[in-house]
Amino acid sequence: MLTRHSQQSLTEQLVERFAERIRARLLAPGARLPSVRECARQQGVSAYTVVAAYDQLLAQGLVEARRQRGFFVRDLVSPEPPGPVPQRSAAAGVLGEGVQALPSGSHVNAAALIRGMFHQASNKPQPGSGVLPPDWLETTFMPAAVRKVTSTRALQESSLRYGDPMGDAELRRVLAQRLAGLNIRAQPQQIITTVGATHALDIVSRTLLKAGDPVMVEEPGWSVEFARLDALGMRILPVPRLADGPDLAVMQRYCEVHAPKLFVSVSVFHNPTGHCLTPGSAHRVLQLATRHDFHIVEDDTYGHIAPDHATRLTVLDGLQRSIYVSGFAKILAPNWRVGFLAAPPDLVERLLDTKLLATLTTPSLLEKALALCIEQGQLRRHAERIRTRLDAARARTVKLALQAGCRFVAEPAGMFGWVDTGVDTDVLAQRMLDEGYLLAPGALFHASRKSGTLMRINFATAQDAAFWKVFARVVGESR
Hints:
Low-confidence stretches: 78-98, 104-108
Number of helices: 19
Helix content: 40-55%
Largest sheet: 8 strands, mixed
């Protein structure tokens, strides 16, 4: 909090606070700063102090003033000042109000969310986190597996030559067995290991798409994927995610107007809503893919905490038009960065070429250790323990959130909750950061950033009653 006992003036302290968050990208480009009156009330200072601070931020080029709208964070990456809002094309108009493609190069920004993943606001539990708490992931079998594969002979064999470009053969064999348990029939030669699931998604898009191609993505969704596709020059087509799956009417209209080449989907425990795909919706998505000739990449990052029988597009499709992507960062070892994709046989060589151009191979030592953890059943038992623990955390968090005045806009399930706070969560996130808590405001999960009252909470890290007490106070002060 600002203090009158500091050697810095109140204005200097306020400037430093905003400047630090803007430069660290915890305040994303386009984010609106609190109004002068609101900021003065929040910080317990005069409006003059806030005006002076905002003037200094303007002079430093960190924010811009928009007439009758307030102060907004500037994009420090782009050398060009923000231009006019792109006009809707005739094709976009055909789609109807609220359903339009985003033009390529629209600067979708996920920096605040990405950096927030690695930013520890304090030693308090972080409700906006995208990962499970470290103590949940601690195991004895992982270090044992690493020790086994790094014995003198094994270490030399793995380290002194490039590994198989497809990935460790043993890991691909056990992954094929694991996929068979999900009713996904993939041979080891259809599986390519990657540096995490994000790398797998990148390989798919670089292989199947070229700059300017239209891609359908679920919204709300994982903004890292939005930003990655945007950086590659793709045209993003946001598809509203409903409780049973993507909005099929919107997909149909996109297919008729834009002829998309790819659809990126999270079928199981969708991030951030927790929704799961239904069989009926899955069947209709596959019908659209066949009729309009596009591929589907199914991101099953959260499949480890889901029932094996959960509906997956890849199961129904049999890896014909679909590509399955997953990894182990959420359930086991975020820093091991081991992911994989399973693809139709006729795409494997093209996907492998893309991997070779980016990374040549992937580190085989950790792949071998992971293969041991899977084959010996340790990963399965660990996942069962996590699911049990997450169920208890979810029940506790839901109770606390409701008591704090939140409303769940999606049935609580999986790892994340999608809640309505009743106040602007962009502003709320900055207020809570002052209190040492990192939030994930809803604007971060939209392809075109727009502020609102929604936010995503992590059930595992939001079960702290002390957080919800502070949250309720700050929300009350923000109304």
